[in-house]
TrEMBL record:
The keyword Disulfide bond applies. Its main location: membrane. Keywords: Cell inner membrane, Cell membrane, Chaperone, Disulfide bond, Electron transport, Membrane, Oxidoreductase, Redox-active center, Transmembrane, Transmembrane helix, Transport. SUPFAM superfamilies: DsbB-like. This is Disulfide bond formation protein B. It is a multi-pass membrane protein. Gene3D superfamilies: DsbB-like. It comes from the Bacteria. It comes from Methylomonas subterranea. Pfam families: DsbB (PF02600). Disulfide bonds join 35-38. Residues 1-8, 158-169 are cytoplasmic.
Length: 169
């Protein structure tokens, strides 16, 4: 017996909500200021969650939603991988810190702001904590890979159940 597609994609949406809640907790309770790459990762989680929600609500074109959610999650994984890479650079290779993101949004062209948010700056190399040997971006990378795998697993699970239903006819 397989779970309904609505429940499957709702579960993915709830996972994204949980990840965003953890990020909000770290920012507002633990007072960890997010760097540009952290914000980009949150946006990728948000985009992935919205795709999961649309799939659950629309209940059509599941394969398209599954591929879109996996693509969004893999983009986020790429951003997380870049963040992990920056954290492991030798100090002399770390890029310079930028002005605050609010200042950048107000005074820099949009293309420069997007480039900054996707490539990171010196503050992105700061490690604010390690849990079980991984930094926050390391755990976020794992979460993105799991979200992508979860999304793509729906293609296999429901393709197999659709094939079984065809055999019954």
């Amino acid at each position: 017996m397989t779970v309904s597609r609505r429940l499957w994609f709702s579960t993915g949406f709830m996972a994204c909500c949980g990840l965003l809640a953890v990020g909000a907790y770290m920012q507002f309770v633990e007072e960890l200021e997010p760097c540009p790459l952290c914000i980009s990762q949150r946006l990728a989680i948000l985009a992935t969650g919205i795709i999961f929600l649309m799939a659950a609500l629309h209940n059509k074109a599941h394969n398209i939603y599954a591929i879109a959610a996996a693509f969004s999650a893999l983009l986020g994984a790429g951003i997380s991988a870049r963040h992990v890479w920056l954290q492991h650079l030798p100090p002399e290779q770390v890029p310079e810190c930028s002005p605050g993101l609010e200042y950048v949004f107000q005074h820099f062209p949009l293309t420069d702001t997007i480039k900054l948010m996707l490539t990171g700056t010196g503050e992105c190399s700061q490690i604010d904590g390690i849990f079980l040997g991984l930094t926050i971006p390391g755990w976020t990378f794992i979460a993105f890979v799991m979200l992508a795998a979860f999304s793509l697993a729906s293609l296999r699970v429901y393709h197999a159940s659709d094939t079984d239903q065809e055999k019954d006819i």
